[in-house]
Amino acid sequence: MRTFTETGERPFVIGAARTEILAPPLAWSNRFAEERAIVCPDVFEPALLDRLLGVARRSHYREEDVSRLGTRQVEAPQTLGTMLTLLLRRANLMAWLEQVTGTAGLAGVEGHVVQTRAGGDALDWHDDRNKPGRALGVTISLIDSEFSGGAFEMRRVGAPESVRTFQHARPGTALIFAIGRDVEHRLLPLASGGPRRVFAGWFMRDAIPAEQA
After folding, report:
1. Which of 34, 80, 103, 187 has its CA 20 to 30 A from that of 178?
2. Is the Cα torsion angle 83, 170, 33, 199 positive or negative in sign?
3. Where are the domains of the chain?
4. For 118, which DSSP code?
5. Within 10 A of 76 (CB to CB), how many other CB atoms are there?
6. Residue 80: exposed, middle, or buried by beta-carbon count in 10 A (0-12, 13-18, 19+)?
7. What is the distance between the alpha carbons of residues 211 and 161, in angstroms, rounded to a whole number?
């Protein structure tokens, strides 16, 4: 099993008022083509990250049973989730992601803040194609407590040896990954500590390609 490549390079930074693109898309597009995902560290300005983590700690979470997949907790009401969808849907970031991933027509973001706890919360293999229009997945670490376990895993369908893994240990790190018929992902249970808290969402297309309809 391999981990997703982490270079430490910061490709973009999201502030309260604007998003700055720091890296040209070419090197990142090559990585996405190979691994079907990219790891983007420190995507928020420090002051904004501190604010987001504070909101995450104060938020309320309700139990959610994800049909046939597992259990977790979801922020309710979606205060921080709404803030993050607005921050992520800026036009220059979506244009950069279109170039990196070869995905045309990105037009919005949906998602929510979720957390899993030691003792059983987890999600089995799935592909996120249950809602039309989802083009790319994104998870962003909002973790402020130590834990073990809870890894995100992704694989190509029909190729078990292709599993790659990622641990959302550093707050503010984003994993942006492909959604399609050929890839699926899962979340392993925490062994101890936690909770494991992330924003889990999707970059959405303005039109649904025929193969996803």
Report:
1. 80
2. negative
3. 2-206
4. T
5. 15
6. buried
7. 26
Contacts 24+ apart (CB under 8 A), 98-102: 99/25, 99/29, 100/25, 100/28, 100/29, 100/32, 100/38, 101/29, 101/32, 101/135, 101/136, 101/176, 101/178, 102/29, 102/32, 102/33
Q: What is the pTM of this model?
A: 0.94
Distance CA 177, CA 136 (A): 6
- Please give the structure tokens belonging to residue 172: 């503010």
pLDDT tens track, the chain, 213 positions? 899 999 899 999 999 999 999 999 998 999 999 999 999 999 999 999 999 999 999 999 999 999 889 999 999 999 999 999 999 999 999 999 999 999 999 999 999 999 999 988 999 999 999 999 999 999 999 998 899 999 999 999 988 788 999 999 899 999 999 999 999 999 999 999 999 999 999 999 985 544 443
Question: For residues 112 and 79, what is the distance between their CA atoms, to the nearest angstrom?
Answer: 9
Alpha-carbon distance 22 to 41, whole Å? 12
What is the number of H-type helices and E-type strands within the chain?
4, 16
User: What token pair was written down for 32?
Assistant: 């996405």
